[in-house]
Amino acid sequence: MKTIKTIESMREIKKTCYAQGYSIGFVPTMGYLHDGHLALVKKSRQQNDIVVVSVFVNPLQFNQSSDLTSYPRDFERDEKLLAEEGVDYIFYPDVNEMYPHALSTDMRLIRRGDVLCGATRPGHFEGVLMVLTKLFNIISPHRVYFGLKDAQQVAVVDGLIDDLNFDIELVPVPTVREADGLAMSSRNVRLTTQERLEAPKINEALEKGQQLIAEDNQWTRMAVIEKVESVLNQINGDIDYINCLSYPELTNDIKHDDDIIIAVAVQFQQSRLIDNVIITSTGDLKYGR
Ligand SMILES: Nc1ncnc2c1ncn2[C@@H]1O[C@H](COP(=O)(O)OP(=O)(O)OP(=O)(O)O)[C@@H](O)[C@H]1O
Ligand SMILES: CC(C)(CO)[C@@H](O)C(=O)[O-]
Ligand code: BAL
User: Fold this and answer.
1) Which of 12, 156, 230, 256 is the most exposed place for a label (fewest CB within 10 A)?
2) Which parts of the sequence bind beta-alanine (predicted)?
3) Is the minimum distance from the CB of 153 to ligand 2 under 6 angstroms?
């Protein structure tokens, strides 16, 4: 495994892979890796000749400077974990390499972005779209892997790939959870002991919402949101949002055979956690939990 710090070297490697006819699987991350990230890496390892993982904490997508400065980092540990997974290249540029001067262009999200994190983290998805467009152009992967914990990100990137005709297959990967149901997240380390005890209620709340949809064919969006809220009210974090929408379009207007997402964000003292469940129109889980 090699760690690559410059765009020029990464481009050379990409060209060599193409010349040899190798497929490239790409896993974009912000580091401080856990088993959720490694699930994406394993999937990419199964499906491609060459696996590239980027580790880059992208300042453009942070709408709160305290969240950026306290974002956990441990590159040496990340390197060890990725070597054990048989990764070929880590792309690990610094901020000046990715953003050497003020940008001349900007990304604007006009679909799937006015709800959930798009509504509560202004500028977040625009920053994600910018860095991914750059990374896609640098690495030119055949497949790219994203976790469904960030389900809105999956929907937004699907739109990006389609709009800009990137010749890339998007592979969504189900959310990996701790034994008590809490979705794995790099931000879990910033929970206090008490918050960590309460945090599995987020998953419990989503399960209650899913049960309502599965068992009551008269269910309404508001009834689902109230059910989820009744469980989330048992914890000390502040509810940032709870919503029930069509997926991947993310509209209030859920048609008969649409998939449905119930998504929540909870702000604890130092950590804002997100989670969701995606359900088929018949009330079944779309992806394993
Ligand atoms: N528990 C998880 N299961 C599956 N994929 C995950 C999980 N957590 C993160 N991912 C995916 O890993 C990729 C990189 O995410 P990122 O580096 O932001 O990690 P993160 O743990 O989600 O961090 P944070 O929760 O602090 O945003 C994204 O595609 C994300 O959806
Ligand atoms: C895709 C990503 C690496 C872009 O910075 C980030 O949004 C993330 O970790 O999900
Ligand atoms: N996992 C999404 C990246 C972020 O929270 O900024």
Assistant:
1) 256
2) 61
3) yes
